[in-house]
Amino acid sequence: MPRGDGNDVNLVNELPINTSVRTTEVLKFTASELFQRLFREGIELVEETAAYLDGDGRSESRLLTRSAALSYASESMKLTTRLMQIASWLLVQRAVNEGNLDADVAFQSRYRLAARDVKTEPLSKDLPAVLVDYVQRTERLYDRTYYLDQKMYVSFEEEPPVNGVRSQIERLKAAFG
């Protein structure tokens, strides 16, 4: 719907009306080797973390103090949630690449990543080092995918349409002051 501010939106699906250039860029990225590597890294991290939490992590958590066990439970839930957000985003991008989801649909907010809350306090020193490593790796991967999400869907800068009359007026002003 025209709003007059340059941010016209189709009210049916919340999409910018002119998405052709952006769609092309999204399709290029999702077909790239960079995306394939990111996808593999994300899925492998999900699988590794799940195996740890179901195996050695469960055993290690039983040996922790009550306070550390509570911290472990909290961090493992946050870790699992963050990994599922990453995996979901990666799967949406793969669906776009494979033609199972229209790129314009992936612009919708429900398919997008939210900004991550940056921790102000360090993780408990009583947590197993392996869990801490998974948390840190997941945070770095989330930051990378969030950056890509923002570049692909939010801060993508399309060239403004050329207005012939306005450009002539600007040239006249520049020439005659």
Commentary on this structure:
The model is unreliable at 1-17 (pLDDT under 50). The protein is mostly helical. The chain has helices at residues 20-30, 33-54, 56-62, 66-97, 103-106, 129-153, 164-176, and strands at residues 9-10, 15-16. α2 (33-54) packs antiparallel against α6 (129-153) and α4 (66-97) runs parallel beside α6. β1 (9-10) and β2 (15-16) form a beta hairpin.
Task: Note the topology.
Blueprint: E1 9-10, E2 15-16, H1 20-30, H2 33-54, H3 56-62, H4 66-97, H5 103-106, H6 129-153, H7 164-176
Antiparallel strand pairs: 1-2
Helix pairs in contact: 1-4, 2-4, 2-6, 4-6
Quick structural overview:
The chain has 177 residues and is mainly α. Helices cover 64% and strands 2% of the residues.
